[in-house]
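Many introductory courses stop at the sequence. We go one step further.
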Amino acid sequence: MATRAGYEDRADLGNVEPEDILSPRHYAAVRRGGRLMRSLPLWCYTSERFWEAEKERIFLRSWNLIEREEIVPKAGDYHSMSFLGVPMIVVRGKDEKVRVFANTCRHRGAMLATGSGNCKAFRCPYHFWSYGLDGRFIGAPNYNDPEGRPLIDGTNKEEFGLAEIESGTWGGFIFIRFKEGPQTLEQHLGAFVESLASHKLEDMACARKVVYEMDANWKCFVENYIDAYHIPYVHKDSLAQWKSKEAVLVPSRGQEYVVFVRHDEGSQLLLPFPGYDGFPPMPQIDPDRTKGTYFVTLRPGMMMTLGNDGALLFQSEPISAKKSRLTVSSLFPKSYFGREDFERLSQNYYRRNDIVVVEDKDIALRQFAGIQSPYARIARLCSQETDVQGLANWIVDQVVTPETGETIAAE
């Protein structure tokens, strides 16, 4: 017999958001363990107010992956893009350092660049203000006061350089943060630095990138990636066919989650079926890591499946409460690109992704569509969903915990 549920029942953890949405009392259930484990209330996926709090307290202050260094391989190369709606320019300077600048002129705010290219300096198309590759102000033609005196001279020139966004690199990845946060990039990466070192991600390059515009909250795909419960069902004819021997969790000390899954020969970047032959293991990998696959996340929105032959990178970028952008990149060692069989073998990896990743993408969309129902409720989590609750608690810690840093006690 079907259960008669209340329409928009506020007392039953539905998606109707409370007025005091950031009050700790609404998240007491998230703090419970054992048989009472729960994930976030459903309004955390649909509320624009909750998303604005996430943006301010998580994304603006956290290190966010935006791209690979290879998008600007040579001095003078630039690449324009946006993240969280902020237009930016990624540029490699004459000193070979990669920097990220706000893509806005310091005069009247016009965008300096579009697309990608190579240049010796940036010149605003509006009034021809110019800037060096390191962001320093170069000049502004005819920028004088009514008496003909220059408005910018040696006394104030330093004030007019481009606004630089704090950035850092690791493993060939470029990270940014918009506001000062509690951790350096290395502290944020935690165990990534040594655990993934022998895979030499900095020596890889992106061979294929697929972007999905998602009608779903950013957390839906992230939660799905760390949810072990769905694998035998959503991936019953694909990823679930891999038989693992054990999973070894690496202790976390930053915003990372690292687990190494041991299995027999092969790579989980492929499927264990005939016709899915792939590249040999990279020779430099630590011997005890050649038979297995890393599954890692870096909060808030980076995930990566790291095999002995390459990596599959996921980026879940929020657009609004109900929209996100999922970018999926296939990375391989640069040395593989020169192989005669690269095009043929790489197709097997893409074929795998077009099955497994699409299964994950589609279920995330389906989940989000369902939780918008006025009858939607959240149930308790099972033992295979403990990582989902871990993420929920981390989000509550960032968004709901009082600014004083006091711990929220479960009611």
